[in-house]
Amino acid sequence: MKRHHSILVADDEKKIADVLSLYLERAGFNVVCVYTGSDVLRRLDDVHPSLIILDLMLPDIPGEEVCMAVRARSSVPILMLTAKHRDEDRLRGLQIGADDYVTKPFNPNEVVARVQAILRRTQLDRPLADRLEYRGGDLVIDALSQVVYKGGDNAELTATEYKLLVTLSRYPRRVFSREELIDRVFGMDFRGDARAIDAHVKNLRAKIEDDPKNPVYIQTVYGMGYRFGGDDD
Fold first, then answer.
1. pLDDT tens-place string over residues 187-228
2. Bridge-partner residues for 54, per DSSP?
3. How many CB atoms lie within 10 A of CB 122?
4. How many angstroms separate the first and last alpha carbons of the chain?
5. Nearest 10 degrees: Cα torsion 226, 186, 116, 64
6. Is this model's pTM higher than 0.90 or not?
7. C-beta separation of 29 from 45 below 8 A
8. Is residue 144 a contact partner of residue 48, using CB atoms and an 8 Å limit?
9. Backbone torsion region of residue 146, taken as left when φ is above 0, otherwise alpha when ψ lies between -120 and 50, otherwise beta
C-alpha cells in the first residue's frame, strides 16, 4: 500500500496511541507516536506531519500551549482528542487553531474518518509545489513546513491566512468570490457574513505586501472578489 500522509499522534496514554496507530495504519497512513508536548514540538520539523492528533492533557506542556506553539510555526491541521467535554473547552480549542475536536471515549473509526475528511478539505489548501517563489523570492510559500516567507523573514501567517493565500495562489489570476473563499477556507458549515473574509484579506496583505493599499499579490476585483496577482519565478 502506498502511503502518502504522516500522522503525528500525541497522547500520554500509550494504549490510546497504539489503538490510533493501528487504525490509522490500516487506513494507509504513516504514524509517529509521541507522549509529551515537548516531543510534539521537537519532532514537528523532522516528521513533517500531514496532521497532528493532539491530546490536551499531556504531562509536561498543556495541549493548548502545544497547539499555539505549533501554530506559531506551522499550519498543519490539528485534531484535538481529549477528555475535556465542556463546550467552552471545545470552543477554545477551535479558537486557538484546532481544525477539529473529538472527546474521549472515542470511536477509532470515527477519528480515522475525521482525519480523512480534514485532509480532503486541506488538499485544496496545498500549493502546487513544495516550494513556490514569487517576484525573485520576495514571497515564498514552503508547503513542507507550511511557512510563508516575506523578504526572507517568516511572515507568521495564521492558519486562516495561510489557507487563504494558498487557495488564491493555486489559481493565479482567477477571481474568487467571497462566498467561494469562505467555503474553501472555513468550510461549508460557516454561518457568518461572507464579508468576514475581508478582514482576513486585510491582515494577510499587512504581512505579505510592501504596500497593502496597493497590493501586488492579493488583488481586489471590484464587484467580484479577490485574485492572486503574483507571478512565480
1. 655 566 767 789 899 999 999 999 999 999 999 999 899 999
2. 10, 80
3. 19
4. 36
5. 130
6. no
7. no
8. yes
9. left
